[in-house]
Amino acid sequence: MTVAFVFPGQGSQTVGMGKALADDFPAAKAVFDEVDAALSAKLSTTIFEGPIETLTLTENAQPALMAVSLATFRVLQSETGLDLARDAKFVAGHSLGEYSALAAAGTFSISDAARLLRTRGQAMQKAVPAGVGAMAALIGLDFDAAAAVAAEAAQGQVCQAANDNGGGQVVVSGDKAAVERAVDIAKGKGAKRAMLLQVSAPFHCALMQPAADVMADALSKVQVNRPAVPVVANVAASPLSEPGDIVKSLVAQVTGTVRWRECVAYMASQGVTKFYEVGAGKVLAGLNKRIAEGATTTSIGTPDDVAAFKAGRNG
Questions:
Q1: Residues 6+ apart with CB under 8 A from 244
Q2: Enzyme catalytic residues
Q3: Average predicted confidence (pLDDT) for the chain
Q4: How far apart are CA 164 and CA 143, in angstroms?
C-alpha cells in the first residue's frame, strides 16, 4: 500500500473545526497557538467560535484551514509515530492546501505558512473590485469541453478554467459577464448543471495577477526547504522537490488552473492506493473517489479519526 497525504482548500471551513483536537492533544493546541502568535491575532477564537461570516473571509479561511490541517498532522505524528519521509510517497493540497502540504513536509514553518496565507487571502481579495469577477461550476463536462466553453465565452474578457476537480466538475473563473456567458453556453453544450458560485473573488484566473505579484514578493522573503517527500503541485500536476521550483509553482498557482484531477491521477499512476485527507471536511475524499478508481481516501480531522488511523497502523 503506497500512501499520499492530501490537504483541503477553501470551502471546507466550518466553525468549530479542530477544536476537539486542540482540547484533547497538546500537539494540536500548540499549532493553533503558533498561528495566533504569527498573525498577532486570535484566529483560533474565530475558528472555534465563529461567526461563520468572519471565518469565511478569504484572509481568515486560508490560514485557518492550514492551521486545522497542521494541528491534525502534528497529532498524527505525536500519537501514531507517523514519519512522512518513511510512510508516504507524496503530499498534495487543493489550492491553499498546497501550503498546508508544504508545511507538513517541512518546506515552510507553520508561522511562515500562516503569514503567507494571510497575505495571499488579502491579496486575492484586493486584486479585483467586488462584483467585477465571478466563478461558476460546470457539471457534466470534461475538462477540454469546459475549457472550450470558457474560451468561447471570453469574447475579449477573462474567462478560464480555474479548477479541474475531476468527475466532470470544472470551475471557470473571470470577468462576471464572461462567466455568465459560460454558464449559458455550457447548458447548450450538454452540461448537466452550470451555476454561479458564491465566492468573494474570481480565483485562479488572469485577473489575479496583482495577487501573484504580491505572493512572488512574499515568498522571496521566507525560508524554503526541500520537502520531506515531493509535493505534487497544482499547476504542474507533477512532483516538485527543489525550493526554487516550488516557489515558482506557488506564484503561478494564483492565476493558474488547479489541476486536481491530474494530480490525483498522477499519484495513482505512481502506485498510490491510499490517500489520507488531513484537516477539515471530506471534499477531497469525494473528488478522489471519482478520479482514482480502486484507491481509497480516508478523512482525518477528529480525535476519533486519529484513533482509527492509529488502530489501523497498529493492526
A1: none
A2: 95, 204
A3: 97
A4: 6
